[in-house]
């Protein structure tokens, strides 16, 4: 009799488990993201993602081509998320943002005009695509960015980075 009860209970549990809807997939990773970027510039990347659609990102790195320190801070907005129909846990967010950029000339450089023109401040417009699996707290991103240098002279710039960040809740 006890074996029949256990069998009935096991059957009931299996039936309930099969009838329950699958757990909802998480959205993009949230919280504090820490990682690295490679490209021009290369360095460290931080992101704070309080919600699904927008977040703040920061980068500090070195440009080996221009021998300058770069510091970026951006507000990012996710335009849309591309998915693979066969595997909806793989998400590719497309995003655009606006932010600021500060470049500081390397100490070993000699400025012929002594006017410090290689250090600059400007606006930054990043855009890109990321790979953000819904079941793992990370993102991998490719991010080109246009910049409008405002000080000391007006000029245009372009950066591109490939990065990865791991998120901690």
What tags apply to this protein structure?
single chain; 169 residues; mainly beta; 1 helix; 62% strand; elongated
Can you give me a brief rundown of this structure?
By secondary structure, the chain is mainly beta. Helices cover 11% and strands 62% of the residues.
Helix % is 10-25%
Strand neighbour order, sheet with most strands? 1-2-3-4-5-6-7-8
Distance between the termini: 49 Å
Which runs of at least 5 residues are low in confidence (pLDDT < 50)? 12-25, 113-117
In N-to-C order, the SSE pattern is HEEEEEEEE
Number of strands: 8
Average pLDDT, all residues = 82
Outline = elongated
Helical stretch count? 1
Nearest-angstrom radius of gyration?
A: 23 Å
**Major sheet description:** 8 strands, antiparallel, barrel
Query: Approximately how much beta-strand content do the residues carry?
Result: over 45%
Class from secondary-structure proportions: mainly beta
Structure description:
With 169 residues, the protein is mostly beta strands. It has one helix and eight strands, in the order αββββββββ. The protein has one helix at 2-19; strands at 31-40, 42-49, 54-63, 68-84, 87-105, 120-131, 138-151, 155-168. Strands 1-2-3-4-5-6-7-8 form an eight-stranded antiparallel β-barrel. The longest helix has 18 residues, at 2-19. It starts with a helix and ends with a strand. The model is unreliable at 12-25 and 113-117 (pLDDT under 50).
